[in-house]
Amino acid sequence: MCAVLSSCSRISVQTETFFAMDTFVNSTVITMSDDLGRELNQKIEEIIAEAEARTSKTLETSEIYKLNEHIWSRAIPNDGYELSNETAELLIAAKSVMKATNEAFNPFIGGIIDMWDINNQDENAVHKLPNKDDFYYNLEKSQGIEYEITQDGGKYYVFSSRFAGTKIDLGAIAKGYALDKVNEYLESENIQNALVSFRSSILALGRNRAGELWSFGLKDPVNPENLAGVIHAGDKFISVSAGYERYIDINGINYAHIIDPETGYPVNNDLLCVAVVMDAKSGTRDKRAQFENNGALSDALSTALYVMGKQKAVDFYASGAFDFEMILFYRSESDPRGYEILQTNVSFNER
Predict the structure, then answer these.
(1) Quick one: residue 285, left, alpha or beta (phi over 0 = left, psi -120 to 50 = alpha)?
(2) Within the chain, which residue ranges are assigned CATH 3.10.520.10?
C-alpha cells in the first residue's frame, strides 16, 4: 500500500457495524480491494465474538461463566482449574493491573455489580439499593483476592484459596482484550490502516483515507450531547471511562455504572471522565511482546484511574507502573464548564 493514502489510485474503505459485548462495534479497514476489506471485517467480527464467548459472565457456554460456577460451588480442584491459553493470558493481565492499582481495578466484583443490577438497561426496570447484609458479604468476599496461574505441560491452571464466594466480571477489560486479538490478526495480514471501535474502547491503526491520523471525539462530561474535544491517534489503543456513558436511577439519583471496589458503591469523586492511550503496535516484530496486552491494559487502566480520583490518578501516572498517556476531566467550580482538563502526551484538541 502506498505511503500517502490520499495519493493512491485505488483505495477501498470497507466499514461494517455489528453488535457484540453489549454494544455496537464499528470496524473500518483500508485496503486495495473491496473483497479483501469485507473479508477482514468478517474475520474481525468473528474474533470479537470468540473473545466474548470466552469472557462473558452471562453466556452459559463461556469459560468465565463456567469458572464462576466452580467458584460459587467451591469446586476448584486442589491441583487447579484448567484454563485456555487465551483466558489465562487475560487473567494474568488483570492480576498485574489489580496489584499495581491496589485493587482500584478488581475483576472479582461481579457479585456487587449484579446486586446493583448495573447492566439492566430496561427503561421500565425499577432499580433498588442492594440488600445491606448480602451487600457487605459480597464486598468482603471480593477484596484481597490472591490467585496464581501456572503452566504445566503446555496447559494453564488457576489456583486460589480465596475464590470461594466471589464472581469474576471482566467487563472492564474484555473489550480491550478483544481489540488485542484484532490487532494481532491485522498485523498478521499486514493491514496498516484500520479503526475498530466499541465507542469507549478503540483500536486506531495507521491513518484514515485522507492520510491523516484517525479522529475520535470525547463528549463533554457535563453536557454529553456536545463534544469536549477530539483525540488524534494512529497505532494506538484508546479507552474511555465516564459516568455519563451508562447509569441507573434509584429514587431520582443517578448512579454510574463503574463500581468502586473498596466501597462497593458506584464511583462518585472529582473525576468525570478518563481517557487512556497506549501503543498498539511496534515498528519491529522483535518488540511485538511489549504491546500484545496493551488493549486489555488500557481498558482496565481507564477504569482504575476513574476509581482513584484525580490526585491518585496523577500520582499513578507519575509512578511509571505502566507506559501510557491520559486525559482527565475533573470537576471545577472555577471553570464555567464545570470541569477542567489535565492531559499528558496526547494529541487532543479542545472544542
Answers:
(1) alpha
(2) 5-34+172-350
